Amino acid sequence: MPKVGIRDVAKFAGVSTGTVSRVLNDHPAVTDELRARVRRIIDELGYMPDPSARSMRSKVSRLIGIVIPDLTNPFFSELVQSAEQAAASHGYNIIVMTSFDDAAKEADRIGQLTSRKVDGIILVPSNDFHRLKLPKGLPIVVVDRLMPGYSGIASDHRAGVRLGVEHLLQLGHRRIGFISGPRHSVPANDRLKGYLDAMGQPDDGGQIGSPLIAEAAFDYESGRSAGNYLLARARSERPTAIFASSDQQAIGCMRAAHDLGIPIPAALSIVGFDGIPLASMTTPRLTTVKQPIQKIAAAAVAVLLNKQPTPGIGHPILLACTLSQGETTAPPQPD
Questions:
Q1: Rounded to whole angstroms, how far apart are CA atoms 90 and 301?
Q2: CA–CA distance, 302 with 317 (Å, rounded to integer)
Q3: What is the pTM of this model?
């Protein structure tokens, strides 16, 4: 079969090639009725626009790059999926690259995306972001791990943790343990501040040494180790509740409690952070503070495509988290 072109679409739809082009580019001047008719003809004929030709004509690639530290982390996987859905709604595709949380690899990935003429980049910086110099002239939106000197979009990590710890306080818990993230992580430090806020403790920079606080990476095994540290002590001294800075940590902590014979939530309440799908699959189902991942991705794409204003430097867009009530919290038992 001969290749279907834009002129064929225009002929069958009874419109000009310019109108077809405006439909393909989501031009606001096209009526809904006309847009639907042209889209129907495109589907019936199986017309596929040539992206390279469109890019040469318009100097727009309709590609968005996204650089994340770790594709195996469920939070970042969901962020990528949400960004792809948001980009597709505007007629864009995404290219995903992983920095492996390394500044040198991160700079290389950004360079590769720049050479591919992407129209913008969504960047979750490595924890070593102070070594990174972003290229000038290319729209870049920093998400999740906010960088000093750059605009960005993130969850309100501090307020989110405060929400989860206050839930435990309202149940009557007072010995509340906290599994922090790595101290060089910006979100981890914000989450620690949220815990200290809720507990009425000063943020003096030395709280990691507290017997109720354990520093850990955001993964399952680190959460399990931190859980063992917090729970392997006399009942009168161990926490009656633990807030973990990620759902993976929380699930690891649940395993530690199981191994020590501590029932959840009868003798220990646990709250996680992120709201990844796995949180709803645990037994008992994990109570967690859910990040608005889809809203973060949609806002990042909208900023790149000039659909909403770019957040000012020092004034990031912070989106509210919500508490997702599961089955891992209950009032504390008497000692």
A1: 9
A2: 12
A3: 0.79
Q: How far apart are CA 78 and CA 174, in angstroms?
A: 34
Q: Which amino acid is residue 318, in one-letter code?
A: L
117-174: per-residue pLDDT in tens? 899 999 999 887 777 777 777 888 999 988 877 779 999 999 999 999 999 999 999 9
23 Cβ partners below 8 Å, 6+ apart? 30, 34, 35, 38, 39, 42
CA-wise closest residue to 178 among 196, 160, 166, 200? 196
Q: How many residues does the chain have?
A: 335
Specify the pLDDT at position 58: 47
Per the CB < 8 A criterion, the answer to whether 120 and 138 are in contact is yes
Closest CA relative to residue 252, chosen from 276, 272, 268: 272
Q: Quote the radius of gyration of the chain (alpha carbons, Å).
A: 24
φ, ψ dihedrals at 92, nearest 5°: -115, 155
Per-residue confidence (pLDDT) for residue 189, from 0 to 100: 93
Judge whether residue 303 has pLDDT over 80: yes
Amino acid at 296: I
Query: What would the two tokens of residue 24 be?
Result: 């393909």
CA dist., res. 23 & res. 104, Å (int): 41
167 burial level (CB within 10 Å; 0-12, 13-18, 19+): buried
What residues form DSSP beta bridges with 98? 68
Gap between the Cα atoms of 147 and 305, Å rounded: 21
Q: Which of 329, 216, 324 is nearest to 278 (CA)?
A: 324
Sheet strands (E) in the chain: 63-68, 93-98, 120-123, 140-143, 152-155, 176-180, 213-215, 241-244, 269-274, 287-290, 317-319, 322-324
